[in-house]
Amino acid sequence: MRVAIVGGGPGGLYAAALLKRLDPTREITVWERNAPDDTFGFGVVLSDETLGGIEHADPQVYEALQHHFTRWDDIDISHRNTRHTSGGHGFAALGRKRLLEILHNRCRTLGVDLRFNSEAPYPAWLAETHDLVISADGVHSTTREAYAHVFRPHVTTHHCRYIWLATDFAFDAFRFEIAETEHGVMQLHGYPYAPDASTVIVEMREEVWRAAGFADLDVADSIERCAKIFADPLRGRPLHTNKSAWTTFRTVVNAHWSHENIVLLGDAAHTAHFSIGSGTKLAVEDALALAACLEEQPSVERALAAYEEERKPVVASTQRAARASLEWFENIGLYLGQPPRQFAFNLLTRSRRVTHDNLRLRDPRFTESVERDFGCPPGTPPMFTPLRLRGLTLRNRVVVSPMDMYSAVDGLPGDFHLVHLGARALGGAGLVMTEMVCVSAEGRITPGCTGLYTAEQAEGWRRITDFVHAQAPGTAIGVQLGHSGRKGSTKLMWEGIDEPLPDGNWPLVAASPLPYRPDSQTPRELTRAQLTDLREQFASAAWRAARAGFDLLELHCAHGYLLSGFLSPLTNRRTDAYGGSLAERLRFPLEVFDAIRGVWPEERPMTVRISATDWAEGGTGAEDAVEIARAFAAHGADAIDVSTGQVVAEERPEYGRSYQTPYADRIRNSLGVPVIAVGAISSWDDVNSLILAGRTDLCALARPHLYDPHWTLHAAAEQSYDGPGVTWPAPYRAGSRRPQTGRTDAPKPRLTLGPV
């Protein structure tokens, strides 16, 4: 097999070494445009997981690396003249030049043809003359661009400028230094990579970079100024360059990683922000996976498909974590007012890969100090601390999110709703929310949706609230009021979500006459008189909700339903006072909110659910969401329930773990208003992490509560918590300890015999 590798960085070189070691008959050539000792940046951080893969695949490379690693455990965070240290993290780094030297030597020993100062031939020629072409030529990959129509790269440029530098002493920890200057916030990321050297990255938003005058300075003057700004952590020492230049980070994502016998590896295939130290790690892991797949599969074609199938999900997960970390630093100004320990905890958990439970194991003393500052009583996880909204005190921070059950008859809640909501109330959550309860028969999504437009429906709800208050004391129950708008008159979810009814349809109304889907019914644009009637319908439903005994009321202004349709520019095309600018699009939802607040008891809280992004070009975005939240808070909303999407059918959500929580985070830390975070929050560890970091006040979980109605009780048991934040119902208390399973502690053999 003839193998061409374009790019002599760590990923390309390690792929060459592995492939040659696995089959010495392979002819492997590496083209590198730079000289052997040319490199960008300074230190490289590798995880224990990556090092374990190297140790198993090539012990000689691992042994060579071991001799040059600098290791440390601590992370230091300096914020407003306060320095906090968190230990137990475990890092290993070495100089990038040293890493390349080790890989050069290994490749030469194995017989790889290394061609430095050489531009690789055109990709098409390489593909014709070689059995395999590995494109490891970085973020600006010429191979990727030559076949862009196949790989379909998407490159996102972000909002910060940064520069790679170094200093001539070793930090004793991974350092994060925050400088609040007259021009804005700047941050330093620093870590040791040799006994006498550390990598230093200086980063700031583009507008700060320009305001500080860096755009007009050459590199020498830039680094001199950086050294002065961060003189304290640098001990007054100078900074050094290595082909350093200010740049902006670009996230590279490719729809496909291979084409015929050409495959992308490392930064050519994907990038992940340096703040989680993943670039070299991902490239080395790519090389390991590619070599393994070529060994395991019967053909190059099958091997490349297997490689892509194996690595894509792993890289996507890393990129989500890196994106969260990147955006945290882009928006660091939101968090500067946090108490120093909470700020440090927030920074440490920014990527959502390090969590509260994870940190508690690594550094219990630091984590306990953050909990004390937050107000957690001893032995109390953050999720079981109380929260007060107006006259209502929630005993814990868990919310059973509104979930449509489509199980009502003529809008009347029945036995199913009693058992469904009652079970989840017995399950320990601080607040249990109903599904969207419709304010009119025409405002239902489906024929199975509940309502609050008749006295009989109010009595049905009273039966449920009475059960919750009597049988699950301490659990609050809230009602979510809404109107389907253009998304109404559809089938039950399991019969065809958002599909129009085959018969028995009712007429739809909306902000503008735009169907939700091409096959959806076209709604009528609401007239002024109809807007007045709708306000009255919402107010009447709220009055009935109060008499039915609900503790909290939420106004549904999300997910493309009626009020959400007024907020989004994609669904509101009106030319009167209720359409146009955001302030005008807010007018009717605010009028409805005010009408409800006028009849809802003063001591009971009201929340508003919004879609913080439409996930569609030209729609509502994060900054709009902040202004929407600001407006509702000014009108008396006690908390904002921050969801996303479902506004337009052509949306393109960016799914992932806790993927909607950054929107709640931004609103909370921009406005200081309490928020409810939702969206793929599945573990109690996530809940503790988000609350303790100050990114949300409450966490709403939907599917986990369908899987386990007693999710909150089980979260308490798994954390060995027994306190006022959650109470097992007396009939269930015998089940408050995890049942025993099969024996796992059998005696181990005292003697193992080897082969004769």
UniProtKB/TrEMBL annotation:
Pfam families: FAD_binding_3, NAD_binding_8, Oxidored_FMN. It comes from Streptomyces cinnabarinus. PANTHER family: BLR3436 PROTEIN, NADPH DEHYDROGENASE C23G7.10C-RELATED. The lineage of its organism: Bacteria, Bacillati, Actinomycetota, Actinomycetes, Kitasatosporales. Gene3D superfamilies: 3.30.9.20, Aldolase class I, FAD/NAD(P)-binding domain. This is Bifunctional salicylyl-CoA 5-hydroxylase/oxidoreductase. Residues 131-319 form the FAD-binding domain. Residues 383-716 form the NADH:flavin oxidoreductase/NADH oxidase N-terminal domain. Residues 732-756 are annotated as: Disordered.
